[in-house]
From TrEMBL:
Keywords: DNA recombination, DNA-binding. Residues 92-263 form the Tyr recombinase domain. It comes from the Bacteria. PROSITE patterns: CB, TYR_RECOMBINASE. This is Integrase. Pfam families: Phage_integrase. GO terms for molecular function: DNA binding. GO terms for biological process: DNA integration; DNA recombination. Residues 1-75 form the Core-binding (CB) domain. InterPro entries: CB, DNA_brk_join_enz, Integrase-like_cat_sf, Integrase_catalytic, Integrase_recombinase_N, Tyrosine_recombinase_XerCD. Belongs to the 'phage' integrase family.
């Protein structure tokens, strides 16, 4: 069995998220096609040239992480003696400040979203902070309206129970109480994929004249929680961040908004 295929099997055995495994496998296939070599014959120079292509800094950092993981596996299994990533440049992952949609933009998107399913996607992102891959797989069975909670399967298949906003409680009463909310148009027993979910939200943004993405609704959620007095630890749990440092980035946004509010003050003439 080729090393990449065996690596994929190990990841499945470790219960890694399906989307993580798929993304890693696709990257390794792309590397092999680009270098025209099997993964185990790729040199450090090949990897450096591949990572130096015209991609974003965040993507370059992701490439390096995945390559380090694969080649560590390859050396641990005895497929190669030394990882070609040893001594290779380690691109730092850039830290981006969240860019939440503005309140007026969110209002406009909701006012113009005519499709019930698209509106539901937007509300799940804005009022529960769900990521697009979490929204895509949401089911009526995930909601417990007696307890006013929803169970979300997030990164790494981690399950979290989130309190429901009153608007989402009403939404859940209108949507199917069993099965997927957002089904594939050809296979109604399957959910849509994350890409389709993100595209549906982004199209709604464009129709509303809002220059933003689906993930910026989640940014709005985190920022709004802090601006309404929630402490960092609570926001971390609600956004399901592994690290508190990730949540702390949102304080930069709220600080800037407070500063802008002060600067907007005008003395009466």
């Amino acid at each position: 069995m080729p090393a990449v295929s065996l690596w994929i099997q190990y990841q499945k055995a470790a219960n890694l998220a399906e989307r993580t495994i798929k993304a890693r496998a696709e990257l390794m296939r792309t590397l092999e096609q680009w270098t025209e070599k099997p993964a185990l014959e790729v040199t450090q120079l090949d990897l450096v040239r591949f990572m130096a292509r015209d991609v974003s800094p965040a993507t370059r950092s992701t490439y390096a992480t995945i390559f380090r993981v694969f080649y560590k596996f390859a050396t641990d299994q005895g497929f190669i003696e030394k990882s070609p990533m040893d001594g290779a440049p380690v691109p730092k992952r850039p830290k981006y400040a969240p860019r939440p949609v503005e309140n007026v933009q969110l209002h406009r998107v909701l006012a113009t979203a005519s499709r019930r399913t698209t509106r539901a996607m937007i509300l799940l992102a804005a009022l529960a902070g769900l990521r697009v891959h979490e929204i895509a797989k949401i089911r009526g069975d995930d909601f417990d309206l007696d307890r006013a909670t929803v169970t979300v399967v997030g990164k790494g298949n981690k399950r979290s129970v989130i309190p429901l906003h009153p608007v989402l409680i009403e939404l859940a009463r209108e949507m199917p109480d069993i099965g997927y909310w957002f089904t594939h148009w050809e296979r109604p027993d399957e959910p849509i994929n994350a890409k389709s979910c993100g595209q549906a939200i982004n199209r709604a943004m464009q129709r509303a004249g809002v220059d933003a993405t689906a993930h910026q609704l989640r940014h709005w959620y985190g920022t709004a929680l802090l601006e309404n007095g929630a402490d960092l630890r609570t926001v971390q749990e609600l956004m399901r961040h592994e690290s508190l440092a990730t949540t702390q980035i949102y304080t930069r946004v709220t600080s800037e908004r407070r500063r802008d509010a002060i600067h907007a003050l005008q003395l009466p003439v």
